[in-house]
Amino acid sequence: MLYNRDKSPGQHFIEPFAEDSSSCGRSLNCIFEPLSTCDLDMVSTNNTIVLPPHTQVDDVYVSTPAASVPPVLGFAMKNLYPGITPDALKYWWRMQATAYIMRINGQTMSKLKELRMGADVLSQGDVSELDKIKQSRTPFPLPEGSFSMHVRHGDKGKEMRLIPFEDYVFKAEQFISQNPMRYRKIAFVSTEDASVTEEADRLSKQPFMELSSKARTTRDKQWTFQWDSIPRKL
Question: How many domains are contained in the chain?
Fold first, then answer.
């Protein structure tokens, strides 16, 4: 699996991160680690399927269902977790595959750090008990056990009902209740909706137990939400 060097998906993301893109053209290899040890020099018409964006792959090339997982990984997971459901197995595999595909390379990580540490970042919440958190900017990397909440509103409302920010927090609370020793009530929020950051500000100023009885955790009394001031389009 290789990215097309000259007609790569997401090519408009390259310029902010790749000062010299000559080694990767317009490919997402400028941002991520290579997908495989293969090289474009090995490509020929006899050994390659070119997959344009948003194109259904012909059945002659792919005969497995969309919900399938690699057999060796599926067997291993079922041995470790006999009660795992087909849907859980499917989404577990998709998360693993996505995490592998989106391994950020060193050049991109350095650029992200530069942008993050230089941004005018807003931070709300009681940070007196949180080590290594500065109110003036979002820490990089975030403290261990933090959450990242991308609340997509804006044009997403054309496709589905928009999910309230409070629902994201409920789910995070439930997750923490199942993993209380590893996760904290600390979250970086990204959104194009100003009302989401206003809601985050409100929630950070009161104990979550007053908001919902769905899940209760005790390690942090309140949530700390952080976000940056980078403009986003609706």
Answer: 3
Count H helices, E strands: the chain? 5, 4
> pLDDT tens-digit profile of 119-153?
444 444 444 444 434 344 567 778 889 999 999 88
Instruction: Note whether 31 and 72 are same-domain residues.
Output: no
Residue 233: is its pLDDT beyond 50? no
Which residue range is the domain that position 85 belongs to? Answer: 64-118
| Rounded CA separation 31/18 (Å) | 7
Q: Which helix (H) or strand (E) holds 85?
A: none
Residue 234 lies in a domain: no
28 CA to centre of own chain: 17
Residue 203's Cβ-side half-sphere holds a number of Cα atoms within 13 Å equal to 26
Q: Kindly state the helix (H) or strand (E) to which residue 218 belongs, with its residue range.
A: none
